[in-house]
Specification:
Blueprint (H helix, E strand, L loop, with lengths): L1 H20 L1 E4 L5 E2 L4 E8 L4 E8 L5 E2 L6 E4 L4 E3 L2 E3 L7 E2 L5 E8 L8 E5 L8 E6 L2 H4 L27 E10 L8 E8 L4 E8 L5 E8 L3 E7 L2 E7 L4 E7 H8 L13 E5 L2 H9 L12 H9 L6 H21 L4 H20 L1 H12 L4 H10 L16 H4 L9 H10 L3 H7 L6 H18 L6 H8 L3 H21 L5 E4 L6 H10 L5 E6 L5 H9 L1 H6 L5 E7 L5 H7 L5 E5 L2 H10 L7 E5 L5 E6 L4 H13 L1
Parallel strand pairs: 13-19, 21-24, 22-23, 23-24
Antiparallel strand pairs: 1-3, 2-12, 3-4, 4-10, 5-9, 6-7, 6-11, 8-10, 11-12, 13-16, 14-15, 14-17, 17-18, 19-20, 22-25, 25-26
GO cellular component, one term: cell envelope
GO biological process, one term: cytochrome complex assembly
Subcellular location: Cell envelope
Length: about 650
């Protein structure tokens, strides 16, 4: 009996020794991730295997996938390839449950005890999951100290917003990413809404090996911007002749993005601002406020909120929006921010409400579409043909929105969107009338006038004498900016004259009934992507840019890209735009365009057809479906 007890004791000791060798890290901190869809809940490291416990967060009934090429890389550069999945099959679609959350494990070779940090990567393909800087020594990592050369800007609680300076000058952004390491993404995208061109602008940011980045551009007014990196985003203000600096704290950025670690102690601030209005920018980042009128916190909540609008009149809808304002204004008043902070937030509130009111027709139509489950052509037809009764004087309530009438409204990132929506739905006169005689409206009106000129140049029309005369009556900054834009445009037009890769086609004298068969007949035997578009259509132009990589990837495939537009696309603009859109181009008459719209039930642009080698339409879509879907449909047609 004693011998048996001794053996049991020995076995338990061995078992305890074995277990003691296991190194367990619960919810390890990390520096950055390419997606918040998967997160590491635990890592168990033994002398035979490393098991990574994963929690997934994704839309219910959609799938995720883990590649067989997934690896862990330690801080010494050693690689540990994935062995297998437990609860998930590698390279196979894993469908998310109704909860939108799931768990599985990935096993890897054993990791040495001296390893303190890991990176996880599926590979270098687009959309690959990556997690950088997974910390195995949580205690050391938690001892965060801000570098001495990083300034912590304190808010001035008496700060008021200065009157914005209107001049055409260079604005500079200086940036730095703390804990940046080689192998992390070294590119980011800069976005801002160009008030004068009435469109979103995008630029590229390159991160240096030491984590610093730099960007400069000419602006004529306060310009809210955003930089988006694969691991996060930062918003900031630029101003003519000013420098803005941002320091991004990856540790805190990752903690705030995490599903599992948000309750942990912060690692300082997520962003540290310096330079132009640093105190106010810091307040906005540290104490964000948002106001939801119909949005909700998820797509499902958004659908529920929109459906509640079904059957409401325009006046009932507006009353619902306006009824929320006192509650939101009280929240702003009771906040501890500076007067400058509160003014920007109040502007955001009014712009949010104004945009909802301006979008009355759109939102009431969407309510009907969602409530009745309309999809595809039925939804497009309802949206295009249904008219919502907007009473006379409906927009006069906007004259009470004093913050958006102020020139200081340009400090808010939503300000440019107001111009975009006003112009898109064609209610300039109603909006301007609702402004009454408010003296501050002059700034808004000047920008609207400048925008008319800027949009013309955006559409590749050089300045004419009438526009030059108009600019001469405006502040010098507008004239300086317009002349710079015009000079760039004239250079671009000359460059376009030398470009190849596009062909202008004539339709010939054919009946309306024979028009489309005649257009595609010369390309019979090839797979076609037909794009019904317009030069003035922002989504059309955006889609043309997005499919450029796809066209390059499929350049050896038997695909012809065919573009059809109508006379609403000005001839000069069309001629100057198509050199950058490689393919076969047709510009039809208004009568022909109307016939094509009616025959094929084209409810808007862009509308796409995929046509196989026999001339059959295999796919039709209004609105850009995305590069992946477009490529998939083209490949299907090629295989027929």
């Amino acid at each position: 009996m004693k011998r048996f007890a001794l053996m049991i004791s020995l076995l338990l000791s061995i078992l305890c020794m074995t277990q003691a060798k296991d190194r367990i890290v619960e919810r390890p901190p990390f520096l950055a991730q390419s997606s918040s869809s998967i997160e590491i809940d635990k890592i168990v490291m033994s002398d035979t295997v490393t098991t990574v416990y994963i929690k997934a967060f994704y839309r219910p009934k959609y799938w995720i996938k883990i590649a067989t090429g997934s690896v862990l890389k330690d801080n010494n550069g050693n690689l540990y390839p994935v062995r297998k999945g437990i609860g998930i099959t590698l390279d196979k679609e894993f469908w998310m449950p109704e909860s939108g959350e799931a768990e599985f494990q990935l096993t890897f070779p054993p990791i040495p005890q001296n390893v303190t940090c890991l990176d996880f990567s599926e590979g270098d393909f687009e959309g690959a999951y990556k997690i950088w800087g997974i910390q195995l020594d949580k205690k050391t990592f938690s001892k965060f100290k801000l570098p001495k050369d990083v300034t912590v800007t304190k808010a001035d609680h008496k700060m008021t917003l200065p009157e914005p300076v209107v001049k055409y000058a260079k604005a500079i952004l200086k940036g730095r990413i703390l804990d940046y390491q080689k192998g992390m993404p070294n590119k980011g995208s800069l976005y801002f809404q160009d008030v004068i061109r009435d469109e979103a602008q995008e630029g590229k940011i390159r991160i240096q090996d030491d984590g610093t980045f730099y960007h400069e551009m000419n602006v004529f007014m306060i310009t809210p911007c955003m930089i988006r990196f694969p691991f996060g985003a930062v918003s900031y203000l630029l101003a003519p002749g000013e420098t803005t600096s941002v320091v991004i704290n990856l540790r805190e950025n990752a903690r705030k993005q995490s599903h599992l670690r948000q309750a942990e102690k912060p690692y300082g601030k997520e962003i540290y601002y310096g330079g132009y209005l640093a105190g106010v920018q810091q307040e906005l980042a540290d104490h964000p406020m948002s106001f939801s009128f119909t949005e909700g916190n998820s797509y499902e909540e958004y659908q529920q909120q929109i459906k509640k609008l079904n059957g409401k009149t325009a006046e009932e809808y507006k009353a619902q929006i306006l009824a929320r304002l006192p509650e939101f204004r009280k929240q702003i008043t009771q906040s501890k921010g500076s007067p400058a902070y509160k003014e920007i937030i109040n502007t955001d509130l009014e712009l949010s409400a104004a945009l909802k009111i301006i979008e009355t027709e759109r939102n009431l139509k969407l309510a009907h579409i969602m409530t009745n489950g309309l999809e595809g052509e039925k939804a497009n037809k309802y949206y295009a043909e249904t008219k919502i009764d907007i009473p006379q004087g409906y927009y006069e309530s906007l004259q009470d929105f004093t913050y958006i009438l102020s020139p200081k409204a340009c400090y808010n990132s939503r300000y440019p969107i107001l111009f975009d929506i006003i112009r898109r739905i064609g209610i300039d006169d109603k909006i301007l009338k609702s402004l009454g005689n408010h003296t501050a409206a002059g700034y808004l009106i000047q920008n609207l006038k400048a925008q008319m000129i800027g949009v013309s140049m955006r559409d590749l029309n050089p300045l004419n004498d009438k526009q030059k005369a108009e600019l001469a009556t405006m502040p010098a900054a507008y004239n300086d900016m317009a002349l710079a834009m015009n000079n760039d445009l004239l250079k671009q037009i000359e460059i376009n004259k030398k470009k190849t890769g596009f062909t202008v086609n004539e339709t010939g004298e054919v009946s309306n009934e024979d028009l489309f068969p005649s257009i595609i007949s010369k390309f019979r035997g090839h797979t076609l992507l037909v794009d019904f578009w317009a030069t003035w259509c922002g989504p059309c132009r955006s889609a043309n840019k997005q499919i450029l990589p796809m066209k390059k990837e499929l350049k050896d495939k038997d695909i012809i890209y065919l573009y059809i537009t109508g006379e609403t696309s000005p001839l000069g603009t069309w001629r100057n735009m198509i050199p950058d859109i490689h393919g076969e181009h047709f510009r039809v008459t208004d009568e022909q365009w109307s016939y094509l719209r009616e025959k094929f039930s084209i409810r808007g642009v862009p509308t796409y057809f995929v046509i196989d080698k026999e001339g059959n339409i295999t796919y039709k879509q209004t609105g850009f479906p995305g590069v992946d879907t477009m490529k998939e449909q083209l490949m299907k047609a090629l295989e027929k």
